[in-house]
Amino acid sequence: MAHVVVVSDTHLPRRAKDLPAPVWAALEAADLVVHAGDWCDEATVLALRARSARLVGVAGNNDGPDVRAHLPRTATFTLGGVRFGVVHETGARTGRERRCDADWAEAVDVLLFGHSHIPWDSTTPRGLRLLNPGSPTDRRRQPTGTWLELDVAGGRLGDVVLHRVPAPGAPQR
């Protein structure tokens, strides 16, 4: 079984000076870390690369040349028999499943994306699973920052868990 942590839209150091400690702990414990874009600085790319067992990432619309020099716009990989795609933007909420089916359903089983800062978990009519981890540092209209953890084994996507960044001073679980 492989344990994967998915983050996006970290926007460092503009939205936060660093990732929250629980997010770093999850990233360091994962077999694979996926970042779906909007890192916003090269230092974040290098830090995640150094502190992750394996990293797959893409550049987002807010990433400059320093970040884009390290990352593609899209990525695909296979883990435990499951085909994954990673992209920053999938367009507007309305019509997302139809667009992603047209663009990705033949190539991947799971599409990981970012951009909205809002968690998303749906399955398209053709069976493509769409997952957005939200943002651990810029929650927008969410009550807290978020990230995803998922397990892959035996050619199947197992548990998918949305984690919320604890509020400062909240007890850690």
From TrEMBL:
EC numbers on record: 3.1.4.-
Keyword field contains Metal-binding: yes
InterPro entries, per the entry: Calcineurin-like_PHP_lpxH, Metallo-depent_PP-like, Phosphodiesterase_MJ0936/Vps29
Pfam family, one: Metallophos_2
Enzyme class: hydrolase
Transmembrane segments: none
Cofactor: a divalent metal cation
Domain Calcineurin-like phosphoesterase: from-to ranges: 4-152
Alphabetical keyword list: Metal-binding
NCBIfam families: yfcE
The protein's name: Phosphoesterase
Source organism per UniProt: Kineococcus halophytocola
Organism ancestry: Bacteria, Bacillati, Actinomycetota, Actinomycetes, Kineosporiales
